[in-house]
Write a structure and sequence with these properties.
six-stranded mixed beta sheet, 2-enoyl-CoA Hydratase, Chain A, domain 1, 246 residues, alpha/beta
Amino acid sequence: MISTELRNGVTVICLNRPEGHNALVPEMLRSLVDHLHNAGSAGRPVVLTALGSTFCPGADLRWMASYRDPSLAVADLVAEHHLAITTILDLPVPVIAAINGSVAGGGLGLALAADYRIAAQQATFTAAYFRLGLTPDGGSSAFLERTIGAARTLELLLTNRRLGAREAHAWGMVGEVVDDDQLVDRALAFAAGLGAVPAYALRQSRRLLDTINMRDQLQLEAVAIRTAARGEVFRTALKAFIDAHP
């Protein structure tokens, strides 16, 4: 589900769950946390990317629907997801997200938690939470507000509109856009060009820029999405998705 390789002195961590198009399940997130810890211990910059045409579409809805009570699946997944987010934020090395394809829902949190983001031309971004009657998680409520502003964040949530890579760049969601076949090479070059980034300075700078306290925000998100998942809107939307994708 997660693979790691060393390239040009940079640790490349790949989301690699092709049978689920890199959709999130607890086992995958636990593996991601382990790979992140190992990468942090190695002291090399990290490029977080994915294999295939999708970066991460958020939660695996089929997996959720397999639960007798899907709200419990949401609670289980959010706990693992938020641990992955805090792990990224605590890493002593820079994290660069190389966004190779579509991103939705919880995938936004993984992408936006990185210190710098590079998108392939084919990358797209959408919130998708309201479509399921859910509230944002994975820190995306704060990350989006910080990168694109409150008004545009609410617009994305209300409309579920899909941003192309160039529009995401214009909004400030990503730092640059490159050709699809140049994505990982550009991310590696960016990471390698950073030089020595002091671990203490990096961690403390992240905290200084975190003006709302991300850990408190994650707790608020967890409570909100668990509550929403107990509602009839979510259950109906989940059933409609499964019926439409037999």
